[in-house]
Amino acid sequence: MGIAKNLQPPDWVRSGAEITGGLDLLGMRLPVQFIGGTLLDGVTTVTPSVRYLAFRAWLVHRYGQTGQADDWQTYTDFAARIESALVLGNLTQDRTISGLIGADQALVHLDAGTPHVEVSSLVKSPASTIYTGPSDQLGLSKTRDNLVPALVDTRGLPLALAVQQRLARIPLLERLVSEPKLTQAALDDLRELGAVARIDQIPDDERELLLAAIVPAKPLPKERARVGTYAALLALAAKKKARPTEGDLFDAACSMNRFGEPLLDQVAVGWTFYGVRDAIAVTQEAVLAAVMSEIMASPEGSLAGLAREHVVGALMERVEEHDSALRDLGLLSAAESVTSLSFRELQRRIDARVSADSVSSQGVKRWPDALGEPLLYKRALKSGAGALSLAVVAWVLAAARVADAVRENNPQAGSLSYQGWRRLGLRDVILPELERFHREDRPLREVAAELAYRTVQQHLQITWSRLQVDLRRDVALLTAEGNQWFSRGKSFTAGRTASRIQQALGWLGQLKLIDAGGITADGDVVLKRAFAVLAEEAAA
Fold it and tell me: Which of 151, 162, 166, 159 is nearest to 212 (CA)?
């Protein structure tokens, strides 16, 4: 065992850092995000409108024609002012259009009641900045340090020229481009712009060029997983004859039949791995939320502190919450209580449920029983103290689902142990610890309590590592001195890792590939194209 595994970070260092908020306070979402990034790039949780990619390409192209400085800040200042005109123009057409960056401030300008509307930056981060990652990942542009982005000739430039054909005839835009100090626009000019630049209405030529980047017919190797994910969503829409949901994707990925098409089995494995790690992250966060709730409920929590044994003991004494959580999963009968359940018995019950009529492929086990990751993370978010027991279930279920993939070195399985022991990797921590729990066969309550202590230690370790990077950032929810835990007055709510599936579905809708009736005729064409790509990969 290396030194890094033996040395533990100090409980806390009083650095004078400013207390801040933050997500992923256990570091458990990072492996989930890593898996998601390999399966679905080119879209983020803050990029809901796919046509912004086309406008961004045009802005880069048009800025290059002005001869202004090859400087990122000068470019973003240029882009922010023109983006504001695009947003204002959209809102003159329909005030309910969603997905516009800076819409709230734009409505303030429109409602000022003046004959001319202020055209100026609406937000700190314009769309040209927010959509940088997706644009680069989709092969439309390339980032150049602190310089103006470059358009990729094969994808970005044709898209920019398609937009240019429409916007070049708008006098307001040409004035904004040629007159950097112009900060006012007439309402009629904004309406004229909005009529041809609606974010929610994509012309066919732009749509085809966007699709050629998002679901390319000749993808780069790193793009094939993205093609598979979009194909899976389109296949679900075809099967359901309705717009699919994020839950549909995870339910299908973990199910016996996957997506009903062998070409999608590989992407089903990937999203199953995502669900496994997300279930672990959700249950561990739910444990931390229960711990913080217990500490903050006590007036001594922030002053004298509470003995950690008292906090965890109090949570374990809320027996009905544990019983309810396990009964909801069908792991405990109405006549039983968690107080009489051993770890080995819980493991046996889970194994019996998931082994019946199960199938295994690529080291991943699937079963017809409803007991699975989607059910587990839904229950964990409302389980209270029962989260301590559900965290144990998540570990056992993960081993049942993917232990073979880890041991057999499935090419994708390395993501299950991303950053190893620091993130409770399957290979490094979870599988060895489950073997120890099985050997010792302690009461389930003791194992659940041990995981609660581990969860708090994990939070302190993550907090300390972030302070090492930035001493001004303090995300700790509690501090520890000896065996005492002290609240820092910050509440915590557990949650799921954002998968970006909802945003991807939004893009499919905007691109007219799915609608309320499921897959469209255009969507079927794109699905067939995606299958051809995946078939070529399978044959290689």
Answer: 159
Q: Which amino acid is at 388?
A: L
pLDDT digits (tens, 9 = 90+) for 463-496: 998 888 777 778 899 999 989 999 988 889 999 9
Residue-wise DSSP of 140-204: SEE--TTS--EE-TTTHHHHHHHHHHHHTT-HHHHHHHH-TT--EEEHHHHHHHHHH--TT---H
Q: Under a CB-based contact definition with an 8 Å cutoff, are residues 90 and 100 in contact?
A: yes
Q: Which tokens hold the place of 401?
A: 């689902």
pLDDT of 188-229, one tens digit each?
Answer: 999 999 999 999 999 999 999 999 999 999 999 999 999 999
- CA distances (Å), origin 497, targets 25, 42, 211: 12, 17, 27
Distances (CA, A) of 339 to 30, 312, 319, 345, 460: 34, 15, 7, 12, 29
User: Residue 87 corresponds to which tokens in the numbers above?
Assistant: 């947003």
Q: Which residues contact 409 (CB under 8 A, 6 or more apart)?
A: none
Q: What is the pTM of this model?
A: 0.93
Domain-by-domain residue ranges, the chain? 51-201
